[in-house]
Design a protein that fits this description.
This is Nitroreductase family protein. With 99 residues, the protein is an alpha+beta fold. It is built from three helices and three strands, in the order E-H-E-H-E-H. It has a three-stranded antiparallel beta sheet, sandwiched between helices. The longest helix has 18 residues.
Length: 99
């Protein structure tokens, strides 16, 4: 779970206006570290936030923002994938004269 320290304990005061930004930076660096260790990372937000907060007895001044799952990088045969030709992905160049 990726947690953000949202509020000062027992208050509604924002702990840090940069807490979400700091969490994003931490998760980005964690993702790169995972790659260096041969792991791929997937973040997701579709989960029971209240249920997890309750299950882990998360204090109310902390907030679960996302979850990151790590696993081995799949080994694929590079020739096994059918790829669309580049021309299918690009708009044709405008051949008209510019006024």
């Amino acid at each position: 779970m990726n947690l953000c320290h949202r509020f000062v304990e027992d208050s509604d005061w924002e702990y840090s206006e940069f807490s979400s930004y700091d969490l994003g930076q931490a998760v980005a660096h964690m993702t790169f570290q995972g790659l260096a260790m041969g792991l791929t990372a997937r973040q997701f937000r579709a989960f029971d936030k209240d249920g997890l907060s309750s299950e882990f007895a998360l204090p109310p001044h902390w907030e679960i923002s996302t979850i990151t799952a790590f696993g081995p990088i799949p080994q694929r045969d590079p020739g096994a994938r059918d790829r669309r030709p580049t021309n299918d992905l690009l708009w044709p160049a405008d051949t008209g004269d510019v006024a």
